[in-house]
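Intended use. Records such as the Four helix bundle protein entry shown here are meant for training and evaluating sequence-to-structure methods. They are not intended to support clinical decisions.
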Amino acid sequence: MHQSINVASVVVKEVLDLRVYRKAFHQADRLFWMSRDWPVEERYALTSQIRRSSRAVCANLSEAWRKRRYPAHFISKLSDADAEAAETRTWLRFAHSCSYLGREAFESQDSVYDQICGGLVRMMSEPDKWCGPG
């Protein structure tokens, strides 16, 4: 049985209910499709790295959610998710620098990852809202 958490009038039963998770998942999916057209020589460098780090945001957030009965573990996994989001932003800068992403696409993606990082930091700063017996 899932523990329900009422956060600001929103009932969160599972990680999929978290806005930050849905946003991160959507962006990782978008990056996958956007990166399909990048040069083949980037396949094992930039392309695989940005796909890995963007997906790792979701994976670490999922782990954090399952460890939320232990605040220190919860915060640690959220910190890992935040680090992966920051890494994704770095790969976005490289993609833009190499002209694989135009200015508008880069700014859009970077802005969303900034929002994702902000959401993760807010969760880390208020673990009592999210943690408890499961």
